[in-house]
Amino acid sequence: MSPQSAVRNLFRLNPSSSEISQYLTTLALSDTASATPEVKSYPDAVYFNYYALGLSLLFTPLPGYKPRIGLKFSELNSDQLILDSLDIYNIPTSSASGPRSKITSSRIAELAFSSFPQFPLVFDIGGEVKGKDGEAQGRPPTLEITSQTTGKDFVQCLGEPDRKGGGSGPSSGSIGIWCEWTKDGIMIEFGGDEANGPQAWERGKDAVWKVITLFSVTPGK
Fold first, then answer.
1. pLDDT value of position 164
2. Torsion of CA 22, 25, 27, 28, to 10 degrees
3. Confidence of residue 220 (pLDDT cuts 50, 70, 90)
4. How far apart are CA 46 and CA 142, in angstroms?
């Protein structure tokens, strides 16, 4: 069994922490340039985008600190920022000629990211969840994610999601389906042709994940 991925241990650390630096080094290997982020700062959030690593870190300011828009890394007060959530990117193959593959502004933003380089991602889960029939069912001790993990795989392991959406409207402008397991701190957006269009939920079981958002969860909630 693979060990749990270290990325979960980064929550509530600041951008200058040695733990985050070490984690990025393991992803980048010898390509140090890929571990240099594009920083986008706002008064309520600061994004560190590692495009070559398929990773985006969202830091939130501590009370009393409001970063100005457009700050560079060296201009930030790193000690006043904590990691609140992160996005891991996976770019599923899609038919370039398919009606649901039209380029949109969000699609262009996604294409800026490469796929995350290190699999499998492994997270401790365990416990029980309710199935579609409302009956409690056990979960495996870990969730193991590869670049090919589908919607069906996630539901089989995590159970029915607490929240879900997307996948409606005209095929040229619909939002891809997404599912959130709130107590686990996991949100999944799915990609490929299966995740878009009016029949997306019927096809969604075969859709490969596109973005995994991990967020910190307060124990007991």
1. 93
2. 170
3. low
4. 31
Section 191-203 average pLDDT? 79
List the end-to-end C-alpha distance of the chain, in Å, as a whole number: 28
**For the segment 47-83, what is each residue's pLDDT rounded down to a tens digit?**
999 999 999 999 999 999 999 999 999 999 999 999 9
pLDDT(173) > 50: no
| Rounded Cα–Cα distance for residues 100 and 15 (Å) | 38
Q: SS3 string of the chain?
A: CCCCCHHHHHCCCCCCCHHHHHHHHHHHCCCHHHHCCEEEEECCEEEEEEHHHCEEEEEEECCCCCCCCCCCHHHCCHHHEEEEEEEEECCCCCCCCCCCCCCCHHHHHHHCCCCCCCCCEEEECCCEEECCCCCEEECCCEEEECCCCEHHHHHHHHCCCCEEECCCCCCCCCCCCEEEEHHHCEEEEECCHHHCCCCHHHHHHHCEEEEEEEECCCCCC
